[in-house]
Every structure is written in C-alpha cells, then in structure tokens.
Amino acid sequence: MMVHFPIGLLLVALILELIDWKRKSTGLRDAVNILTWIGVASAAFSVTFGLLLSDAEQSEGQTFEIHRWAGFITLGLAILATISLRNANRNIYRALLFVTVFGVSFAGHYGAMITHGDDYLTSVMPSSVEPEQEQSNEDPADFVLTNNGALNPQQVQDLNVEVRTILAHNCYSCHGEAKSKGDLRLDSKEAIMKGGENGVVVVPNHPDKSEIIRRISLPKGDKEAMPTKGKRLTEREIKVLKYWVEKGALWPDGKQKSIYRVAALEPRTPVLPAASGDIVQPVDRLVNAYFQKNKIAWKPAVNDRIYIRRVYLDIIGLLPPPEKVEAFVADGRPDKREQLAKELLNRNDDYAQHWMSFWNDALRNDYSGTGYITGGRFDITKWLYASLEVNKPYNWFVKELISPTKESAGFIKGIKWRGTINSSQRTEMQAAQNVSQVFLGLNLKCASCHDSFISDWKLADSYAFANIFADTLLEINRCDKPTGKIAGTKILFPELGEISVNASTEKRLRELADFLVQPKDGRLYRTAVNRIWAQLMGRGIVEPVDMMDNMPWSEDLLDWLASDFVANGYDMKKLIYTIVTSKTYQLPSSSVKEASDIMANDYKFTGMVRRRLTAEQFSDAISTAFNPMYADSAVVYKLLPGDIKTRLPFPRAAFVKNDPFQTSLGRPNRETVSTSRTSQANLLQALELTNGSKFTTTLKQGSKVWKAKYPTSDSLVTALYQKALGRTPLEKELAAARKILGPAPNEESIQDLVWAIALVPEFQLIY
Fold it and tell me: For the whole model, what pTM was predicted?
C-alpha cells in the first residue's frame, strides 16, 4: 500500500501542473510544488521501507529485481523533478514529472506482483476465466467436485490421486521422506493425519478447522502462507483440497494407484492402419493415422541433394563426395534412396566410426579423464568398435555389457572416484543408475539418495538393484546418512524374473542380463528404438529419452518399431534402414523457436527436427571439405583394433581425445551418462569458431594447400562449394566470393572464405 500514496500525490501534481499550463495560476503552481515535494519524500520513504521489508522476507526473483531497480530509478527521476522546480523552464519539470508518475506506477505494478501474484491484475478482469472452468472438460476429478453425496470407490480413487498429485508437486520437497520441516510429512495417510510439531493439519469434514487449508489459502507474501517458495497453488487446487477434507479426507482401500504414469512393461504389436496411395510402409501408415488425427498434411519429400546429405551424415557421419551427389541426382531408379541406404549401412567401418560417438556418450566411454590416472576407470573402446562393425544383435550387445567380458566390463565398473564420495556414487550404485538409464529409460539418480519426487521409485528399490552388482550387501544411506538397514537384492521389474540372492556376483549379473533381454521386456526395446528415432529425427517419440514413462506422441508407432525390432533379430541396421527409407524421414525438417518447445506436452510431430552437426560431424566435415582437423598422431590407436589405420579414411574426430574445440561444440566429458546433446548454438561455440586456435590453425594449414591447388578464384570457389555444400555456387555467391578472394587468391582470403562457408546454416545444419 505504501506505493499508492506517492502515486496519488504525484499524479495529482501532474494534473494540476497540466491545468496550470493553461491558466497560469500562482495558487495552482504553489500547490503543485508542495505536492511534488511531499510525493518525492513519500517515494523515498516507500523505497527505504520496501528494501527493509524485502530483506526481512528474503524476497528474490526476476519480478523483485525489476521492482527494486524501477524504484531506484524512479526515485532518482523524482529528485530531478524537484530540482527542476527551481528552473524557470517548466517544460523540463513537466516532462520529468510525467516520467516519474509512469515510473512509480510501473514499480508499483511489480510490487503488487510480488505480494499478490503475477496474475493479480488479470485475475480480477471480467474477461478472466477461472482455472476450474478452463479444465472442467479435461479433468476426471471435476465431476467428483460437483458431487454433494457419497462418493463411490472409483470417485474416491480419482479424488485421492489428484490430491496426492497436488501434494507431490507442491509440498513433498519440504514435507516428504527426504525433508520434514516442522516434523510434518504429507506423503502418506498416516503422516498427514498425525500432523507436525504444531499439531494436526487436517481435521476430516472440517476444512475451516484444518491448518493445511488455512495456510494454502493465505495471500502470497504472508509469513504463514504455504508453499513458502515457488508457485502458489491455483484456485482449483485449493478447491480440490478443501473438497477432499470436506468429504472426510478419504483414502481408498487396497493397493494405492500411482500418481505418475507408468508405461507398460510387456510388448505390444498394434494393428497397422490400411495402406493408402504411396503411404505403404508401416512407419508411414502409423504416422499417417497420427497426421489424420491431428489434422496435419503430408508435405512433399525433400529433394535428392538434401536426402543424400542427410542420410550420409546420419548413417556414416560424413559429407557425401561431390561425384556421389551428382551421380545420385542423375540416377533415375525409383528405388535409388533405398539402394543408397543399403550401400551406406554396408560400409561397416564407416558406420562403426560414426556410431561410436553415440554409444561412447551413452556408455560413458572415453579415452582420458577422471579415473585414468588412478586406475579407477576402464575403457571399452575395442569391444565397442568390434560390436558396431559386425552389427552385433542388440540383445547380445546388452548382455555383454551387463554380464561382461574383460573387454566390456568398463561400463558397469563405473568410475572409482578419488577420495571420499557420496554414497549414491559408489560404483555399484553407478552401475544401477547407468543400466536403468541407458537400457530402460529410467532415472534412478534421485531414488539413490531418497525416495524419488518424480516417480514411484523408492530408495530401497535402488539399493536392491545396486546389490545385484555388489560383492557384499549395501547398507541403505538416505541423503548420505547411514540408516542401519540392509537392502535386499531385486530386479527393478520383478515380473521379468527373480535374482538368486545367495549366488555369486557373476551369476547374478548373468541372470540380470538374461532377464532384461527377454522379448517380454518391451521396455528395453522401446527404449532402444526411441533412442535411434531421436538420433535420426532430432526428437524422440518419447521425450526426454531417459524418461520412458512419459507419454509418446504416437504409442502405436513406438510399440510397432519395438516389436519389429525384436522380430528382425534385434538388428540395429535394419531398424535404421526402416526409418531412413520411410516417407516420414524424407519430410522437410522443421525448427523450434526455443529448445524447450521440443519437450512441450503439446508437441506435434510434423517431421524431422532440424539439427546442428555434432562436434565430430562438424570436425569431419571440415576435414573432408577443406583440410584435416587432426593429425594422425592425435588418434588413440592403442585403444582401437590393431589394423584400424588401414580402415580410417583420415583422423576422424570420434577417435581423438576431447579438447576445447569439441567441448565447445557439445561433446561431453563422459564422466556421466549422456544420452542426448543439445542442438542449440551457444556463445562458447561462437567464440571457438571465431577466435579458437584449433579452427584457426586448420584454416591456415589448409589455405596453403588450396592456394597451390586452385590458382584462380572461380575454380577454388566451385571446388569448395561442391565439397562443403554438395552443389555449385549460385552466380551471386560466386560474385561475393570473388570480392573476398580477389583475382588471385591468397592465404588470408582463402581462410576468410572457408570460415564464412563453415558458419552458414546450410553447412552447419542437417536439413
């Protein structure tokens, strides 16, 4: 309320000043002067006490910062306005007074947002719609809220699920298993009814006497309001909790229904929609059904130049040679795209060299870094390369990682960190976390420290799973504090089988591997096909790819791909072939305005999401189009098959140790599992490409070679465009390049031209 007083005074002063502007009244002018001085003094008072109040209530956030600085600036303007009263020029005073009134109003608006919420203004507008009205047709519990009689068991279940969902999203962080402020927990019926150190919080049938209802109903800014941090409960959420208490704080009998979506474990083979016209492949028929449901029209397929570049980069990670591009464009065969995909997939070494990066990220395999000095980390490079080269069936691939040979043991051994570590990072727990994340699309990291806030997984589940990898049973540590309890030994999904508790670690791992790769473990194979789809299409059918309990945009497509993958002998190359030869893969790419749009709940699939070249793809593209980025000595030959030198076309970036250049382009350090890379450009990348020594050195070295090989500007530009972009330059591009190069190219001008082409979207993006 403090801000209203100076606003009122200064506004009145402004109005009187505008009247005096016409009438030239000495009395009015004196009144304006007095009001201005009082208004400025009260504004200073408001700013001072506002700061004291914010410190007392520990206010923070963007809204508070805007409010604070607007107050400072406006106070300064007000002081300038009073100083200008001494000037004979009233026009300056009037301008400053006008800006000051606007500034005080602006600061006051943001102050009201702090105390009353961001929607304090729009919520009272006649046109505003209450949240319950907006959601009345979408939420099954809305029907329950209108029921004044007794609830049937299903209605009790629906209401209880919604109540627990509200509490989980808003209250568990402070009143849950990991943290119980005021000795109050809200994550079970017994705990809620028990209350906290200040007594009971729920009085069944009496919301007016229930402390929890009083606290959540208090205005934002009240010291007793709950939640104390984050977003306030919506009007509808408060209404649901009041209704629940009014009905007796009902809790259903029997097994408690999960408040989180849990994807089915078992496989499912959906019935394929009928073929229509040129939509005959199963992937396309399923996508067509999705398009029809969402009123999305098919777009024409991309042209041959875009397709060959896209499929080359996706299958072997390299740019297509100019002669291959021209031959493909001239090829008149109707099945030439299918034949190209087969040809590339049969290039076993090129395929393995490209997909090494994908699996290195996922399996936390690198060539240096934490743990190598102390012998606490072991690579699986030779095993991984050989597995990809021979296209090892995925079920055997998984089995050899979980029940490992000596060459493949590095994955589940994890990193033995130096010194004291958190109990959730001991190697057995790392194995449990990594296996569940990579192969099951399941995040156990939260549940390795305490019961998860985002799923039904409990701390005991994580330790029981970790015990499969442990030589001795682990004591459960909650938030790194020993509990004195010893976990059992159990697979995450008991439906798959029972682990022999007293067996050796080696036998337990064999059992785990056998159980996980069974055809009835639909989750394993859904997770695998979703990862490959995301790698090729820029976005998974389920996102994020490590949260497979999330809703897929097409459940039928995901299930069909997984069942077809199993039916085809767990063949990764056949899976990739199925995707890249589909009409769906050949749709034009689309872009998103914000990275978060890809994860949005209302995401609509329209085709491939446009992607930036990975660090390795960009490095290899520069190497093939202009000059090798890395010397032969940079390749980690000692970790690779003995004859790898004869198989590498040049020193590919996937086989050199990470460096600042590749880090800036998104290559992770692989000390933790990384199952996706961001495709967004960032400042670090821009700085590295403009000022980084690695790229600059490559351009300098290459310019010498190109100067000697291409003495004329036109021949150099034509060759560069063909190698880098797979086409000849347009006339306007040729003219622009001539200006850069001059009549006779020199080394500096060649560097400038290559740098410019390397930064254009056509080179950096997969369209």
Answer: 0.76
